[in-house]
Amino acid sequence: MRKITKITDNTKIKNFLKRAKYFEKLGLNSYMLPIQNAASSKVLVDGQELLMLGSYSYLGLITHPEIIKVGHEAMDKYGVGAGGVRLLTGTTDLHHTLEKKISEFKRTEDAMVLSSGYVTNMTLISTLFGKDDLIIIDKYDHQSIYDGCILSKADWKRFNHNDMDNLAEVLEEHRENYKRVIVIVDGVYSMDGDIAPMPEIIELAKQHKAFTMVDEAHSIGTIGPNGRGIDDYFNLEPGAIDIYMGTLSKAIPSIGGYIAANKDVITYLKFNSNAFIFSAALPPVSAAVALKAIEIIETDIERIRALQKNYTHFINGVKELGYDTLKSKDTPIVPVIIGNDVKTFRFAKQMRKAGILVPPIVYPAVPLDAGRLRCCVMATHTEEEIDYILAAMEKIGKNLKVI
Ligand code: PMP
Known about the structure:
Elements: H1 11-25, E1 42-45, E2 48-52, H2 65-78, H3 93-105, E3 110-114, H4 117-128, E4 133-138, H5 143-152, E5 155-159, H6 164-174, E6 180-186, H7 198-207, E7 211-215, H8 230-234, E8 243-247, E9 257-261, H9 263-272, H10 274-278, H11 284-299, H12 301-321, E10 333-339, H13 341-353, E11 356-357, E12 360-361, E13 371-376, H14 383-399
Parallel strand pairs: 2-11, 4-5, 4-6, 6-7, 7-8
Antiparallel strand pairs: 1-2, 3-9, 8-9, 10-13, 12-13
Helix pairs in contact: 2-11, 3-11, 4-5, 6-7, 12-14
The structure holds 4'-deoxy-4'-aminopyridoxal-5'-phosphate (PMP).
4'-deoxy-4'-aminopyridoxal-5'-phosphate is lined by residues 116-118, 121, 142, 144, 186, 190, 215, 217-218, 247, 249, 257.
């Protein structure tokens, strides 16, 4: 066998590097642009002020003065890190208070927090499920759910995105062969901006004696009359979903992930999940910030309304211009389909020239010719800003013959 001397001497790596160089040469790289201030609705990149149309801080809480104050106070009291893993010496009273708050917010018996949303999915799925179990996931579920399935050693199957007939088929065909079966979906899909039809999923799961889990990374703080997420949106009974997972890094402007479920599930996970036992605890300052943010989401209904008004105004405007926005509805994520990757990168670059920062999403994250701008609307955008963005999208879209 030929001896390889360079670590990158591998077809997959070489193909990637070639593609990256090609876009760099065209001056179309839009990734990892360094933002020089807080990631709120206006940001500085290379000294240029840009309107942010891609932040996960949907409620614009990153710069909320009360949250910043709480963060300073937590740092004064607890220092800058946890200094240990949760199971041993990394748990503070703030972690307990945050977990209690999350369980109340999601109306479950108990909750736990970990230091990354990504790791939360991986550890939760792989700790609870294994041999003899079947995990059924929506094809468009987040990568961390896929990774959790792979790590779990359980069997896993996919159903077509939001396709309830296909989910029923998968359940009918495979349910009998397994002891435990769980259906895992995202509440709001991060690339398409649509919502999982939770009442139908719960009903199908019930019929087949399967459990349900939802990833609320993008639904918490954004959907439902009170911004409380998927159960609020569909007016579900408490406990209608077996396991709620969510992140503390989006509408809640901190870092980390949570699991909310019944007491036995959480107790088992706390003592058995590797990421809880072997990885450093969420820094107390991040816990304090997340806690305050949830209190604000619970009380500042005006902010929720502003977000919902803004995303409705934006998507109506984009549709009126003639863009394809897939099935996005009632969420702050609005995919605007552009086409192939070169065109999508060009569009993003022209948007930047017009003073708007929006991330282009291309293959392999999305299908080959479904490159898109993933527009994320915030509560802190003004109506004038949204109208300005729409006007720019009209001009650029016509220019590039997308509309
Ligand atoms: N789930 C979904 C649906 C996500 O979109 C993300 C992050 N984009 C995660 C989980 C991981 O969360 P975090 O970024 O907080 O690690």
